[in-house]
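Please, structure for the following, as tokens.
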Amino acid sequence: MPWIYLLLAGILETGWAIGLKYTEGFTKLTPSLLTVMCIIASIGLLGLALRDLPVGTAYAVWTGLGTAGAVILGMVLFAEPPTITRLASIGLILAGVAGLKMSS
């Protein structure tokens, strides 16, 4: 169950990272509220995962999933360039996340 919490926390981290763009500096109410809700839920789920997982592993996986998700959605939603370097870097992040999962 802690890995499911951590996966959901990483997805929500991606959500709030992308949500920050839509808040326009927290000047738009609905995107701001949704972003804050994602932040709270993401950190709450990370806290639940930390009951059973090592903090270093959980934090690295959480940020890795959030980072990879934000980069991918940035390319999809905001037309950020999908360069070979970016794609390879996402692959390295996901390989690191998988390696940490296998080591726990």
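Residues 2-103 form one domain. The first helix runs from residue 2 to 23.
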